[in-house]
Each structure stands twice: as C-alpha cells, then as structure tokens.
Specification:
Metallo-B-lactamas; sulfur dioxygenase activity; alpha/beta; six-stranded mixed sheet; metal ion binding
Length: about 230
C-alpha cells in the first residue's frame, strides 16, 4: 500500500496518489504535473485505475483528460459537476476500490455545489478537497457555493473519529496534514457558535476571484481541455 502527497506551487494545490496491489488512484491531479505523475506510475509499476477531482477547480487546470489519454484510466467527477467529458460520476455513498483500499465518497457541498471528500476508514485518511483546509475552509462565494451548506458539511466531517488525518486540497502556509481533533481545536473558522455566525464570517472575507477562474472552470468541465 502506498500514499504520496504532491504539491503544485503555482496554485498551492495538493495531489494525492493512493495505490494498493498494483492499482492506483490520483486525487486532484494538476495538468502541469501530468508528465511527472505518469512517469512515476510507470517507474513504480502502477496501473492508474482512476483519476478524480474533488470538485470543478477554479484555480488550476486538471490533468484528468491528459492522464486518461496517457494511461487509459477512468476519469471521475461529482455528479453535480456538469462535466460531460468524464468517464463516469460519483455520488454520496459510492465506494471507489483500488486494490484492497476502499475510498468512501462523501458529498460535502458548500465550497461549490459539486464538492466531495474521500474517506478511507481502514487507514483513517480523509481527503477534504476545498471543503476543510488546515486552519481554514474553502471560500463559498462562487460556483453555487453556499456558506450555510458548507457549515453542515463541516459538521458531518467533524463527526468522524477525531484522530482522522486531514489531507486538504490546498495549503498556503506550509501545512501538509492535520487531524480532525486539531482542526476542531485550532481552526478559526470552526470556532463559530452556529451556522448564522459562520455565514456572517464567510460573507465578510471579500476575497478576489482566483486569477485563472475564467480559464480553469470551463477547461475543467472539459477534463482539462481549454475551449
């Protein structure tokens, strides 16, 4: 069994490689890293079974289409993504199997309306995309995001075992991993009293749009191919 974390500097994106018994899955692969990822899979003798995105990204272009061309893998996205290019879709309650590893699909909308997380209970791993970040949460002001909905998604994640390891989709401060207990204690966006306070907090962030948003969103709905 193998789990690797990769960092793409331009968008501060984490990509994850999970493998078991010769089969592999890539979570949130970035287009610029596709050659490196394909080369590593070949070096390690791994067959890429799935390449998946936790949601339609606005800050980088996905490698799903490129990896499918290079490896023959299946590309999967959330059923709400409107991505006709995908080989298939996942939804709440689905399980993705890679060797003997089982990834449970959790629908966690709020950052976007197609946001999902992947939970591996046998290892205590939680891949949170942009729903839960280390000492932060994903913004909720575009792509049908909704702060109240995200608050409920976060409560659902926090109901998992506190020792669960959190592997986020991004980090901007150098963190690589956390736990749910640590985030419950130290994440400032989890210290609010109720959903109304969370909605107010998120409404006052006033963040600029991602620089690549106009390019990345349509490209990612086409599995990484610009129109």
């Amino acid at each position: 069994m193998l789990m690797r974390q990769f960092f793409e500097r331009e968008s501060s994106t984490y990509t994850y490689l999970l493998a078991d018994q010769g089969e592999a899955i890539l979570i949130d692969p970035v287009l610029d890293m596709a050659p490196m990822l394909a080369g590593l899979l070949e070096q390690l003798g791994l067959a890429l079974k799935y390449a998946v995105d936790t949601h339609v990204h606005a800050d980088h272009v996905t490698a799903l289409g490129r990896l499918r061309e290079q490896t023959g893998c299946k590309t999967l996205m959330g059923s709400q993504s409107q991505a006709a290019c995908a080989s298939g879709f996942f939804s709440e309650g689905d399980t993705l199997a890679v060797g003997n590893l089982s990834l449970e699909v959790l629908y966690t909308p709020g950052h976007t309306d197609d946001s999902h997380c992947f939970y591996v209970p046998s290892q205590g791993w939680l891949f949170t995309g942009d729903t839960l970040l280390i000492r932060g949460t994903g913004r909720t002001d575009f792509q049908n995001g909704d702060a109240a909905t995200q608050y409920q998604s976060l409560q659902r994640l926090l109901a998992l075992p506190p020792e669960t390891l959190v592997y986020p989709g991004h980090d901007y401060k150098g963190f690589t991993c956390s736990t749910l207990a640590e985030e419950q204690r130290f994440n400032p966006r989890l210290q609010v009293q109720d959903v109304a306070a969370y909605v107010e907090l998120m409404a006052n962030l006033k963040l600029p749009n991602p620089k690549m948003m106009d390019v990345a969103v349509p490209a990612n709905r086409a599995c990484g191919k610009a129109g």
